[in-house]
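[step 3/7] fold_predict: job queued, chain A
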Amino acid sequence: MHLVTTDDQAKSPTPGSGAPDRAELPELLDADDERPSITEVNGTVARFDMSFAPDKPMREVFIAPFKARAPSLVYLAFALVVAAVVVTAYNGSSNTRLWVWIVEGDRGRPIGAQPLSILLTVSALGTAIRSWMRGVVVTSEGIQTREVLLLGLPRIKSWAWAQVDRLIVDDRGVMLELWDGRYERLPEVAEPARLSSLLEQVALARGKQVTRLR
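[step 4/7] structure written:
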């Protein structure tokens, strides 16, 4: 006959008690150990987009659309063709009609073909450069517009963000409502959607009101 001791009774559960068997406890992490991050478990790296900081230096240039730059490009192409014809005439044979028309004809002209072609080329280059300078410049300090008036006179307008009360965006472009009640529509650019998105982002970051017209 086997005797059951008090220690054996404590170790073995009594029938019908419903007590679960003792399971082996997992090892606890030390206080100094770091828990694995979600990115380490899933095997991916989490990326977070930083919101726009108003004080962060920023400068974005938006050039004029192609239709506004096309005339200057045509003028530049014409000047280059004239210069090529003049160079060909002066370096060609004296028996050709081109040599007679340009080289010999320069003797009776107030200005020769060579100086004229140089003036045309320089003027065309200046016109093309001015056309590429047209557009809108957005910085962290404000907005600047660059336009070219008649006779090639440049016109630059600048507004600090403190002068802008509201931004109005529609299908035609962007309009500024200034602090004194005036409205200023920005000139057309080659990337109107990107300009509208950037201005809206900066305006909201600076607490400005943005209105989208449909």
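[step 5/7] annotate
DSSP finds six helices and eight strands in the chain.
Residues 66-91 form the longest helix (26 residues).
exit 0
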